[in-house]
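Dear all,

This email documents one entry for the complex benchmark we are building for the journal club exercise. For each entry we list the sequence lines for every component of the assembly. Then comes the predicted three-dimensional structure of the complex as a token string, followed by one or two observations. Please use this as the template for your own entries, and keep the labels exactly as they appear.
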Amino acid sequence: MSMSARRDPTTAGTSSREAFVSSTAKLLRRQGYAATGLNEIVARSGAPRGSLYFHFPGGKQELALAAMEHSGEQLRGAIAAVMASPGGAARTVGGLIDALAAGLEASGYRDGCPIATVTLEAAAGSEPVRLTAERVFSSWLSELESALVAEGAEPEAARRRAMLVLAAAEGGLLLARAQRDTAPLTAVRDELQNLLA
Amino acid sequence: MSMSARRDPTTAGTSSREAFVSSTAKLLRRQGYAATGLNEIVARSGAPRGSLYFHFPGGKQELALAAMEHSGEQLRGAIAAVMASPGGAARTVGGLIDALAAGLEASGYRDGCPIATVTLEAAAGSEPVRLTAERVFSSWLSELESALVAEGAEPEAARRRAMLVLAAAEGGLLLARAQRDTAPLTAVRDELQNLLA
DNA sequence: GAGTAAGTAGACCGGTCGGTATAGTACGCG
DNA sequence: CGCGTACTATACCGACCGGTCTACTTACTC
């Protein structure tokens, strides 16, 4: 009864699973949950439709949860890396927002937050989606908070400020997509740096 | 024999049009564009399907644009009213965010920003949607900005701060929906009041 | 009261949706 | 070898999608 871990120790066998997850992550980020069809996911991933339900018997929703975790962990790593770079919190937070702005612009204003869209359209209708979103946001918050604490901020103040930074970044990404311009993000960055200095 | 509120002289002719718009606005706010079906809109509005295409020959998209304008104008009025109340900017901005939090909680965390969800899922794929979102956000920004200018803020600083306030409010609504808790909004409110004091 | 534009009404359409059934293949293991 | 299982592969399903059609009823005008 050996469980998974089959296949060539490297990536064989799970390759189509990963292809599903990353295709889904990309599509969810760009157009959200409801607008993303299984046909589109299957076509992009290159794997056959039947394999999808082998790897994700829970269907579209299970796949979406996996994609959210995947994107969430990726971005958490990026946040941690930026916040660990030298300079004060004002500087690193500025760098973080600049990085988000650069990524958004480079994608033709398509790649915003990979979690926000799904959260807004599906969190109210699906508790698993909501819980996953909550967990991912919380992981990002922890990274920001601990970076602020490491700079000597009071725990309570650090929590509130981390929340403001994340909220402002999310809102900035939203407004930037609506305007097709990074101006909202740079305005947010400047004001945040004022506050944190 | 038809029993559906026939032609009351005042609202004559446009009553079903308005029913379509307000039903659509409510549904877009709660679940976004792609997840909202015409069947659901038609059922809620009480009007027949055929009438929809009489009033909105452009179909779902035209209806969505009208609903976005409708919600946008409504919220613009609310923002203007709150910002005109007595007290400094720190106080009125705090009141605005408290009002958003109260509305969100009262709806069971379903009614967030009526524009954000549609923007994130559809702005990249439909220029009319994007432009409408841009216009609505801009109208809200103007209200915030002029309230800050009326308090003696420099024009440039007022613009940047209005952007931060809107971005933080949008992000706060997003995080509050993910957490099913108003804590993100109160944290954002407190930090914003600090900054504006 | 005939004519006509405005608006109502719901049956109907092809296409796509998420999901399933079932046959086939690759591979570790005895 | 051959057998079981992990996985691939595709054809197929009913439901629902956004959108269209045509017949009808009203309200106003002459």
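Observations: Chain B touches chain A through 51 residues (CB under 8 Å). Residues 88 and 151 of chain B are 7 Å apart (CA to CA).
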